[in-house]
C-alpha cells in the first residue's frame, strides 16, 4: 500500500526532485514558487522530496558534536523533511533558505545545544512564538479534540535515550507542555476537513521516563480529494512517500508496544518579518 501511494504521488506530481536541480535551477524554482499561495507552495515544495531516502538525523551544525551538513537535499528524516519544506516554501530565493531553516531548527544560537530537540517543549512552542506555525487541532477536530500534555521531569533526563542527547543541564527542559489532540479513532472522520499543507504530528501515550511523546510528523496532502500523509517514512520504504491517511491510521492503530493515542495539527504561517540572516551564511 505504501509503495502504491508512492507510485501515485510520483505520477500525479510534476514537481522536479530537489536533488535533480543545480543551484541556479533551485534558485529559479524557489523564486517561482514564492509567487504561489502558501498552501500550494508547501504541497509543491514537499513533492520535490518524494522518493528522497530516509536517513536518521541527516542535518547537523557542520562542525562540533554533530558535524552533519546544515542543509542537504539528498536525504531527510521525518523532522528535517518538514523543516526544509517550510524553509523552501517561505523563501523568496534559495539564498534565504539557510536563514529560514536555522530559525525553524533552533530556539536561539545555531549550536547543537540550541537546537529544538523536543517537539512539545521546544520545536512547537518556539516556532509558534516566532510566528512560523499555529495550532489548528481544534479548528479541524471540533468536538472530538481532547486536552492532553507532556510532563517532563528531571528523572526523565536520566534514562538512556535522554542521556544520549548529551545536552547540558541548562538545556534539559522540564515542566508541563499542553497539547490539543484528535484521538486516533476520530481522525478518519475529521480528515475530510484538513487542508493540504497542514502539519500532522503523531502523539503516543505519555510515559514518564521519556522526554517526548510526539514521534513522527508529515504533511497532509490530497489527490483527487483523498487525504494522504506525505512523510519521510521509516519502515518499510525508507523514503519520502504519500501514504493514504486511512492506511496510516490503520497501521498506527496496530502499534501496541507504545500506543499511538492521536494527532495534533499545525498550519504553516506566512513568513515572519523581518527575516534574520543566518549566522552561518549559505551552506
Notable traits:
putative xylanase like fold, 283 residues, 8 strands, disordered N terminus, 10 helices
In short:
The protein has 283 residues and is an alpha+beta fold.
What would you note in describing this structure?
The protein has 283 residues and is an alpha+beta fold. The chain has one domain: putative xylanase like domain (putative xylanase like fold). Helices cover 32% and strands 20% of the residues. The protein has 10 helices and 8 strands. Strands 1, 2, 3, 4, 5, 6, 7 and 8 form an 8-stranded antiparallel β-sheet that branches. A hairpin with a 5-residue loop joins strand 6 and strand 7. Helix 4 (78-90) crosses helix 5 (97-105). The longest helix is centred in the first third of the chain and has 13 residues, at 78-90.
What's the architecture in CATH terms?
Answer: Roll
Count of the domains: 1
Terminal CA distance reads 37 Å
* Average residue pLDDT: 92
So what's the overall shape?
Answer: globular
- Strand-pairing-aware structural class: alpha+beta
Write the layout of secondary structure elements.
Elements: H1 2-12, H2 23-33, H3 38-47, H4 78-90, H5 97-105, H6 119-130, E1 133-135, H7 137-141, E2 146-152, H8 160-163, E3 175-183, H9 184-190, E4 199-204, E5 214-223, E6 226-233, E7 239-244, H10 245-253, E8 260-268
Helix pairs in contact: 3-4, 4-5, 9-10
Amino acid at each position: 500500500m505504501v509503495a502504491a501511494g508512492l507510485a501515485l504521488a510520483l505520477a500525479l506530481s510534476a514537481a522536479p526532485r530537489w536533488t535533480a536541480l543545480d543551484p541556479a535551477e533551485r534558485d529559479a524554482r524557489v523564486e517561482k514558487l514564492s509567487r504561489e499561495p502558501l498552501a500550494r507552495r508547501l504541497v509543491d515544495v514537499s513533492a520535490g522530496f518524494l522518493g528522497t531516502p530516509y536517513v536518521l538525523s541527516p542535518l547537523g551544525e557542520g562542525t562540533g558534536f554533530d558535524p552533519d551538513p546544515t542543509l542537504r537535499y539528498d536525504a531527510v528524516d521525518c523532522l528535517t523533511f518538514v523543516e526544509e519544506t517550510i524553509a523552501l516554501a517561505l523563501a523568496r530565493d534559495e539564498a534565504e533558505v539557510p536563514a529560514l531553516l536555522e530559525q525553524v531548527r533552533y530556539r536561539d544560537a545555531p549550536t547543537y545545544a540550541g537546537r529544538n530537540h523536543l517537539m512539545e517543549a521546544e520545536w512547537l512552542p518556539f516556532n509558534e512564538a516566532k510566528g512560523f506555525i499555529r495550532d489548528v487541532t481544534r479548528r479541524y477536530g471540533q468536538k472530538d479534540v481532547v486536552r492532553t500534555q507532556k510532563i517532563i521531569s528531571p528523572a526523565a533526563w536520566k534514562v538512556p535515550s535522554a542521556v544520549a542527547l548529551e545536552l547540558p543541564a541548562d538545556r534539559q527542559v522540564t515542566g508541563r507542555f499542553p497539547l490539543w489532540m484528535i484521538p486516533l479513532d476520530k481522525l478518519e472522520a475529521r480528515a475530510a476537513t484538513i487542508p493540504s499543507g497542514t502539519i500532522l504530528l503523531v502523539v503516543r501515550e505519555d510515559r514518564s521516563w521519556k522526554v517526548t511523546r510526539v514521534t513522527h510528523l508529515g504533511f497532509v496532502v490530497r489527490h483527487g480529494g483523498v487525504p494522504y500523509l506525505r512523510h519521510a517514512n521509516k519502515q518499510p520504504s525508507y523514503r519520502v512517500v504519500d501514504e493514504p491517511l486511512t492506511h496510516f491510521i490503520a497501521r498506527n492503530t496496530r502499534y501496541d508496544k507504545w500506543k499511538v493515542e492521536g494527532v495534533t495539527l499545525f498550519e504553516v504561517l506566512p513568513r515572519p518579518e523581518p527575516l534574520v540572516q543566518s549566522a552561518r551564511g549559505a551552506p
